[in-house]
Amino acid sequence: xxxxxxxxxxxxxxxxxxxxxxxxxxxxxxxxxxxxxxxxxxxxxxxxxxxxxxxxxxxxxxxxxxxxxxxxxxxxxxxxxxxxxxxxxxxxxxxxxxxxxxxxxxxxxxxxxxxxxxxxxxxxxxxxxxxxxxxxxxxxxxxxxxxxxxxxxxxxxxxxxxxxxxxxxxxxxxxxxxxxxxxxxxxxxxxxxxxxxxxxxxxxxxxxxxxxxxxxxxxxxxxxxxxxxxxxxxxxxxxxxxxxxxxxxxxxxxxxxxxxxxxxxxxxxxxxxxxxxxxxxxxxxxxxxxxxxxxxxxxxxxxxxxxxxxxxxxxxxxxxxxxxxxxxxxxxxxxxxxxxxxxxxxxxxxxxxxxxxxxxxxxxxxxxxxxxxxxxxxxxxxxxxxxxxxxxxx
Length: 394
Ligand SMILES: Cc1cc2nc3c(=O)[nH]c(=O)nc-3n(C[C@H](O)[C@H](O)[C@H](O)COP(=O)(O)OP(=O)(O)OC[C@H]3O[C@@H](n4cnc5c(N)ncnc54)[C@H](O)[C@@H]3O)c2cc1C
Prior knowledge:
Distance between the termini: 35 Å
Number of helices: 7
Shape: globular
Strand content: 25-35%
Structural class: alpha/beta
Number of strands: 19
Largest sheet: 10 strands, mixed
Bound molecules: flavin-adenine dinucleotide
């Protein structure tokens, strides 16, 4: 039976990151993905590598600081995949967040980002408003500009996998994890590939199956603790209009939630929603009422969308957030990643629940730190904050 230091379930950004971090630390690793790289949540995000300005409102300062640091790392190691873009926040007479609140938030953002030039912000002069992609200017008091980054989430995930493989990480795909059994010094993992069952041994199994993580964890014997999480669906729609100036960060006119209106592959990507989800993760899809909600945002802020209906939507997709179970609205819940182990020290299983696209490298570094005692020391091959990430050639 083949033996690895680490076996990872899930070829999303977290699984890719863990495979890369393990390989960089000198460990052997195998990643098992049932469909395709980034076929889950990691191709259905808002595609932002960002500090998360709105997380300041809920006091998640450590998360924002780490995310801004990770944004800087991305801009350095993946310049052809991650691009700094102007973000515009229009403030109308009836906008809930007032200019002083936003400027205070942006000052804290800049502080947490070490006052790097990329954290600069200011107001767009009124004479430049006509350059803002036809943004509604009736009752407009001010437009604030700051900077954050945009990526192609699926391309980024593929680039991390390529980096991991160049360091010796292995990939089984399509291959579906079906079971694992724990023993004193590791785990036997069973997966189904090309109609046959294969068994492999590892010192540690990392469950990076995103919204499928609870179901992967439930196939491990003896049973391990599974955190209490909720799945919350987020939908995006694409409308046929080219935005050229930047990304708009607006409040939904119906409930005040923050929604992004972004240039994306020659069209406009609008998202996202937050709808509790109780079904099978494989079946998630945009709901008509979510599409109407996003269309209403687009129509409210951009007169050019005013006649558009669901028939004009050129693409739609939905992904699932994994959030700590709670009664409060999804929008206000912590976005910190939850890590669980079967035992400490020397875990044989580590589960990753939730998290952000932006924080994948920091999450992977944390995983390696937690499972390090089970793996033992190996000569390090590379540091992940120095490894270039490149767009795969078609
Ligand atoms: C609507 C939305 C918008 C978001 N926007 C942003 C954003 O703009 N910026 C940001 O930083 N973060 C954002 N996020 C968060 C970010 O997208 C996720 O945290 C991240 O993509 C999760 O990646 P993952 O690897 O944990 O899971 P996934 O990408 O879902 O990967 C899990 C993988 O496991 C595989 N799998 C499942 N079961 C098995 C099995 N039995 N065997 C083998 N493989 C299996 C699946 O096929 C899948 O590929 C957003 C999330 C959502 C839902």
